[in-house]
Design brief:
The protein is of the alpha+beta class. It is built from six helices and six strands. The chain has helices at 5-19, 25-32, 42-46, 60-64, 122-125, 128-143, and strands at 89-90, 98-99, 110-112, 117-119, 154-157, 175-178. α1 (5-19) packs antiparallel against α2. It is extended and about 65 Å long.
């Protein structure tokens, strides 16, 4: 069964196969390229697209919590902290449910710096670029040996994960990061 992103990918490939090398290709390529550029591009609004028109499915956020990416977000410890799959609240009626919308949970929103508005999609969308890069690196692991593939940095705090502070109190964060591939940050 196909759907969502699989259908979109096949449709885009079919367009490329039909038009690449023709006089229309440059214009067609420019038009369809927005469908695989998942970053928030301001020119999309000018071209008539409504925000988030170009996303094809939304079941991925729940699936992402099955992975312990450990990118410092601590979503595994508490889905309310937020992670690659978004940020969730715990249901008071059913404490086993964490969701961004539920019977007793109003829609979770975060401030979107591109629109300067509270946005119910932003808790997940903020991570799309990082997530795409992470999956691209993991795909490389399938076809390259360790030395020739990119790996995530190793990040460590120089203090406990949880810090307490009062209103207006300044806290100092300290940590280190190393690149297992020997690169610089």
């Amino acid at each position: 069964q196909q759907g969502g992103t699989n259908t979109l990918a096949r449709a885009l490939r079919s367009i490329e196969e039909k038009y690449k090398g023709t006089p229309q290709w440059q214009e067609i390529h420019a038009e369809v390229s927005v469908y695989h550029d998942f970053e928030l591009a301001p020119d999309l609004v000018e071209r008539g697209y409504i925000r988030y028109d170009l996303f094809s499915e939304w079941d991925t956020p729940a699936w992402l919590y099955a992975f312990d990416f450990r990118v410092g977000l601590r979503h595994v410890d508490n889905p309310g902290y937020g992670g690659l799959g978004g940020r969730f609240e715990q249901s008071q009626k059913d404490p086993g449910v964490w969701a961004d919308q539920w019977e007793d949970i109003s829609t979770v929103v975060d401030f979107n710096p591109y629109t300067n508005e509270l946005d119910s999609y932003w808790p997940q969308l903020r991570w799309v670029k990082m997530l795409q890069n992470d999956f691209a690196a993991r795909a490389e692991w399938c076809v390259r040996d360790y030395e020739n593939a990119n790996h995530p940095p190793v990040v460590k705090l120089n203090h406990p994960n949880d810090l307490n502070a009062g209103i207006g109190e300044v806290i100092k964060l300290s940590g280190t990061a190393t690149d297992p591939d020997g690169g610089s940050f």
